[in-house]
Structures are given as C-alpha cells and as structure tokens.
Write a structure and sequence with these properties.
Elements: H1 2-12, E1 20-21, E2 59-63, E3 69-80, E4 83-88, E5 96-101, E6 104-109, E7 112-115, E8 118-122, E9 125-131, E10 139-152, E11 162-181, E12 184-198, E13 201-210, E14 214-220, E15 223-231
Parallel strand pairs: 1-5
Antiparallel strand pairs: 2-3, 2-15, 3-4, 5-6, 6-9, 7-8, 8-10, 10-11, 11-12, 12-13, 13-14, 14-15
Length: about 230
Amino acid sequence: MKQYLKSLTLLSISIFFITFTACDNEPLDAGLNGADGNGNNEPSGNTTGDYWPRAEGNTWTYNALGGTEETYTIIGTEIIDGINYFEFDNLLGIPAWMRKGGANYYVRNEVYYELPGFEVQSTPFVVNMLKDDAEVGETWSSNVNYTLSFTPTDGSPGIPDTPVNALYTLEMIERDMTKTVEGIAYTNVLHVHLVVSASGQIEEADYFYAKDIGLIEYISGGGSVTLLEYTLN
C-alpha cells in the first residue's frame, strides 16, 4: 500500500494533465462524479489569474525525478462525461485531465502502476488541486472514492477489486512570491502544500505555480521536479 500511495501522490502532484476551461457559472459538481470518482462541491470563487494555461500546443519541459528531461504537450481536446477537456500527450504513460471552474482547478486522474506480479489501475477520480483565490492559511479538500483493479502477470493469483477512499487536503502557504527555479526568477508565484491520506498512509508535497506559466516546481519525498522551459500559445 505504501508503493500505491507514493504512485498516487506522484500522479496527483504532477502538472502534466489534460486541462479544461469551464465557464464560471458552470455547476462545480459537473464531471466530478463520473465513473467511481467524485470531489467536494465548492463555490467557484473569483479567479485571480491563470496559473495553468490551457491551449493546444502548450508544452512544458521539466528536470524530472532521476535527472531526466521530460516534455509534456497539450495535444487537443476530448469530451468526457459531457465535459470538454484539453488533453496532454501523457504523464508517465498515465491518463489524466483537468478543468478550471472560477478559481478552482479540478484534476481528473486514473492511476496506473506495476507491482511484482500485477498491473494496477484505478477508476477515474477528481481532485480540486488549486484555488487561485485562496488566502494564505486557507485550506480546501477533496474526499475521493475509486476502485483499484489488479491484473495478474506471470501467473500470479487473482486479487479482488479494492475500493479506496483518499482525502486530499491542500493549503495556500504563500501568495505573490518570487521564486528562482533553474536560474530564472519567477514572480506572482503561489505556494500550495498537499497532504494525501489513504488507507492509513500519508504523503505530502509542495507545488509552486507561476501566473500565466504553470507549475514551475514541485517537491515531494521522492525529490523535486523543476521547470526548464515552456512554450505557450
């Protein structure tokens, strides 16, 4: 389960998702209850800017975990459960999506990873990963439910599908800060702290979002991922 939670946290704290821009007056529970995933309904708020720019052809290149460079590109749009999303090419081979409603950025994930003898995949779930109007010290959370399925490999015995409940709690640590990443000083940066709790395990991470650019750095127990370059349309 520890391996599962680390994979879950890595997926959730990565920026490289499919993204969707919703109208400010769209009901915020739209798309949150698709499949087995769900999220908490919250007021849309008044956005203070765009901290995850969404347009086809946008790319971000990162110095990723392990020192490798990874580039993620928005390749188009897709309608899921009646809602339009922008689509990234991949996140470590894992499908994921995101939409914005007011000041809230909702990420729709499907976890995939491998364990000895099994391939593990989840049903979709949605997390409110950012509120760009949150004041310093303000918290918000998403309580999500989904199901893990285990596909045996190498003749391993079957494991029943497993329901999971996870609580994502986020806090605005600092606003409008200046942060230097890979020698570049970014202004108008938001610092958000994440705590993920599931099945008695807890993982934490920190995100730094620059206005009109996107995620410039995240830090977790596995290390840090830093922005090297980007192209926005």
